[in-house]
Amino acid sequence: MRIKIHLTTQIIIGMLIGIILGAVFGTKIAGIKIIGDIFLRLIQMAVMPLVFCTVIAAIGKLPVKQLGKLGIKTAAWFIGTTLIAALVGLLLGWWFMPGVGIDLKLNPELVQKFTSHPVSTSDMILGFFPTNIFEALVKGNTIQVIIFALCMGIVLSKANSQQKYQHIINGLEQLNQLFIDLIQLVLCIAPVGIGALIASVIAENGLTVLIPLLKFLILFGVGTLFFLAILFGMIMIRAHMTLRTVMHGFANILIIAMTTTSSAVSLPVEMHDAEKRLGIKKEISELVLPLGMALNSNGLAMYLALACVTMTQFYGLSLSFIMMLKIVMLAIVACLGTVAVPGGGLVALAIIVPTLGLPLESIALLAGIDWFAGIFRTVLNVVGDTTTAIMIAADEKKLVHGSLPVKN
C-alpha cells in the first residue's frame, strides 16, 4: 500500500535534510542555494496577479447596498484589528529581539537599499497610490496594486448591479483559481527548495541560526494569547457576553482552526457556530465571514510584522520609525487575497521581503517552522473574523442570543 506523506511533513523532512547537509558538508554545498532561489522565484511569479484578481473579485461580487454603511463598518473593523495585530507583532520583535545572536551575511548593495534614501511620511503615503498600474504590477509594488484592485472592485460592484458584468467576476474568479493551482504546483517542490535554502544558510552560518526560530515561535504564541485576550474582552464588553458564552461559542472554531491550520476549511464551522452558538444573524455572518477569509487576517499580520523585524535582526540592521511604519503597512496590505491560499504565510512573505530590500532566502529559515506558526495564524484569523461579525451584529442589533449560551 502506498503511503501518502502530507506536504507539511515533506517540508519538515526537507528542512531536516538541509540542516544535516549544511552541517556535514559546510561551504562545499553552498552552491545548492540556486535550487532554493528558483523555488522562491516560481512562488513570486504568481503573487501579484493572484492578489490583483482576488481583491477585485472579492469586492466586485458584493451587492452595491453592502458596500455602503455595513461595508464601511466591516472594513473599519478589519483594518482596525489587523493594525493592532501588526503592531503587537512589531513590538514583540522590537522589544524581545528574537533574531539577535546570529549574523547572516547581507549583500552590501542590499544594505544600502535598506538604509539609504530616507523617505518622509508624506512621500511614503503618496507612494501607496499608483500612477500606472502596469508599472506597479511589473515592479511588484504590492500596496499600489491592492489600492488599484480595491478601487476597481468598487467600480465593478456598482456596474454589476444588474448582473451585466457577472462574466467578468466569473472570469476573475477562474483566473484566481488557476493562480492558486499554479502555487499548489510550485509548492510540490517546496521540500526540495526549502531544504536547499536551509542547507546553504547552515553551510555559511552554522547551526546557531536555528536558535532564533524557537524564540520566534514562543513570541508568536505569546502574542497570539495576548491578542485573543483583547478580542474576547472586546466581545464581552460590546456584546455583553460572559466568558462562559464566549468560550462555548468559540470552542469548535478554535479546535478546527488549530488542527487544520486552514481558514478556508474552518469557514463552514465558523459560520455554523457564529449563527447557532454565538447568535449572529445570517445576513451578517454570510457577509462578514467569507469576506473576512479573503481580505482579513489578524494572525498573518502579526506573523508578518514579527517575521520582518526578526529578519532585519538576522542581518544586524537597525529599524527607523519610517521603516517600522512601512512594515506595519505592508503587513496589513499583504494579507489581502493570501489568507485562503495554500502556503499563505510563505506567499505573503514573498510579497513583503523584497519590498523591504531583504534577500528572498531570508524566508527559508521561517519556512521550516511554517506549519507550527500556521496554527497561531489560523486561530487569530478565524477568531478575528468572527469577532468582527459579533461586533457588527451587536451594533446593528442583529445579535440574537446576547449572553446566553446556545445549545447545538
Automatic annotation (TrEMBL):
InterPro entries: Na-dicarboxylate_symporter (IPR001991), Na:dicarbo_symporter_sf (IPR036458). The chain crosses the membrane at residues 12-36, 42-64, 76-97, 136-157, 178-203, 209-237, 249-267. Keywords: Cell membrane, Membrane, Transmembrane, Transmembrane helix, Transport. GO terms for cellular component: plasma membrane. It is found in: Cell membrane. It is a multi-pass membrane protein. GO terms for molecular function: symporter activity. It comes from the Bacteria. Pfam families: SDF. This is Transporter, dicarboxylate/amino acid:cation Na+/H+ symporter family protein. The lineage of its organism: Bacteria, Bacillati, Bacillota, Bacilli, Lactobacillales.
